[in-house]
Amino acid sequence: MKTGIHRWALLALAVLAMAIAGPGLAQQVTGVLGSPSATASISGKQLPAPDPKFAGVIQDDALQSKPWWAPRIVPPKGAPNVLLIITDDAGFGVPSTFGGVIPTPAMDRIANEGLRYNRMFSTALCSPTRAALITGRNHHSAGFGVISEQSTGYPGYNSIIGKDKATIGRILLDNGYATSWFGKNHNTPAFAASQVGPFDQWPSGMGFEYFYGFVGGDANQWQPNLFRNTTQIYPFEGKPGWNLVTGMADDAIDYMTRVHQIQPDKPIFIKYAPGATHAPHHPTQEWVEKIRAMHLFDDGYEKLRERIFENQKRLGVIPKDTKLGPWPSQVLKPWDQLSADEKKLFIRQVEVFAAYAAYSDHEIGRVIQTFQDLGKLDNTLIIYINGDNGTSAEGGPLGTPNEVAFFNGLNQLPVDVQMKFYDVWGTEQTYNHMSAGWSWAFDTPFSWFKQNASQLGGVNQNMVVSWPARIKDKGGLREQFVHVIDVVPTILEAAGIRAPEMVDGIRQAPIEGTSFAYTFDATSAKAPTRHKTQYFEMMGQWALYHDGWFLSTKVNRAPWEAFGPANPDPLNNQVLELFNLNSDFSQTTDLAAKNPQKVKEMKQMFIAEAKKHQVFPMDASVAARIVAPRPNITAGRSEFVYTRPMVGLPQGDSPLLLNTSYTVTADIEVPAAGAEGMILTSGGRFGGYGFYLLKGKPVWLWNMVDLERLKWEGAEALPPGKHTLEFDFKYDGLGAGTLAFNSFSGVGRPGTGTLKVDGQVVATRTMPKTLPMILQWDESFDIGSDTLTGVNDADYKPPFTLTAKLNKLTIKVDRPQLSPEDMKKLDAAMRNNKVSE
């Protein structure tokens, strides 16, 4: 009897092993299958792995039966830990590792212990690059043709990563890894970022078990809107001098140490995505002083560019015969033509940017060092990508103390206005960005910037990779073409894990990237590039790489020209240029006139790639897409009622009070001692509105991107008892039959606001302009208190909790209803007219 049971059990275990491993794959097992301590790798063909059948023996009583436990799933033996680092808005010439003047010792360390890559390519914009990075599919294939805030109702542009494109987090999680994501998350749709979800497009819903960071494109590093998993960290209580750059490093170190202490043999995957160096540039004063003492920028941006270029040639990270294109005097004023104040301001701007980059690299170094301190560094694959696109020029030629102003069409604030912020540049009092002259220099040896997908300054990043147990060619240079879609297949090959065919019962779209693990060996230093063809497209600018040739559209829009006319036919209404990158590293010699047939062939190749990867319909508009309609939990509603305090509702899911008439009514009860505090606010110090009691007096305030504050205020404090407060705003624009197709199609037009107390008018004033596009993106819609920064520092400090009882808050929006014909006219006007100044 017992012998029969034993033989049956052995047979069952053998069958089970085959089932877990799958056909043609050898299962890796530790311990005895069926015992509590057994582990096993899986085939990975289907995720999650199907539950194995019970392989024990069940008789009438336990003494005659045999228990059995399913093995714990682990990755294949030797699978490395993975630290995937991607910084923000940093061009080729930013880090010292690739010739820059900004010290980046952590990146230097990885380069010296591993490999440098000088042909790592992005998509030219942040969240599109990040979607490609975590899925291994092109950005349009993953729904991220642009950022979510510009999303449109087409598969390539809806900012929804499809269920058929499981992320690297999900794949590694189901194969036994601990998976986490720190820092920037700009891949949750703006219309799915509230606490009602759905959460399937949040990091935790995409396979990252632990998330600590911010949702959206940028964040105030001093007072960020932080989340742990899907829960807002509120109230946010940063200690004096606290900064997210250090805060997220601390949290990552705590996480990896905790995992190690609990289960030392469990491999860790970390996606580490600091906000640096995306605006606002917010380093600590210590780092600003370190950079200022180095006097790196005193001789201006052209000299900086030349110095970086010479450094790059000396280090050998670019070919010796690389050419440096001319300075773009037509768009960026040469340094010697600047006024003394302009030079002073611009140097301040860039010193803060450089401090931010150096500070971020330092904190990345702490995370890397922790892998060593835990004894894990030898078997850790570190991929450190410098920039998700080229350096940002969205500050415009003059820079800005408030990036929110740029997104509302104010992209060239006079220098005398900006000088008022000189002493607080980079502190919590600014949402700052630098002059585009520095951005051009930091993209050396290339030209143009972030957003310019047809120019190497927008898409040619650099990268360092180390894996001591595997990569022995320390300090080597790799010049093969690599794209961010290649990272996922590289990690999977390194871990010995296959890309799944099915996930949650959904057949997966093929991985579109090509593993670059073949470059890890010294013998492959000069191996031919395996990634042969790659398209690029961003807001109507496009290019195609094929076997070293690069077909690209000539730049027809600078990044700060977001509100101008859009190319109506971005596929064909273009000047095409042709470059041979094999002999022209920096894209300086146009060969299109000499090779018309090559141009024609490559354009057809681009069209084929565009059709394959959901690039059509192409759209060259920028700002128009920000105000375009998209899914929102407020859609179709004109009335919103709240009966208790609530904070943290993001802009993309809250009632929008821009470009519309509206009425806000608050029924409150003032206690005997009087009351003050915030009733309703959205946005913050750098753009937003607030409805509050100040020393008992009712106030409605509009913060006009920190340049002006318009206030409606009652003359007397409210006496104890019940009161009805009302702010009514009549908007002059965008009405059916009264359409004024100027001033960017009627957005940002004037209006008149009236403040009432118990039905009596207490204040009326006209706004000559209103905010046309956005409030401060990283702040939220709050009722009963104010999270993070306030809309008026002179009146109160957050959280400014309401001490009156809020019985009811009602918002009624009277948004103009346009006919289909009006909508066509509106769309055309938004693409062809500028915002009024």
Automatic annotation (TrEMBL):
Q: Which Pfam families match?
A: Sulfatase
UniProt-listed Gene3D superfamilies:
3.30.1120.10, Alkaline Phosphatase, subunit A
Q: Where would one find the signal peptide in this protein?
A: 1-26
Protein keywords:
Calcium, Hydrolase, Metal-binding, Signal
Q: Which domain of life is it from?
A: Bacteria
Protein family membership: Belongs to the sulfatase family.
**Protein name per Swiss-Prot or TrEMBL:** Arylsulfatase
State the organism of origin: Candidatus Accumulibacter contiguus
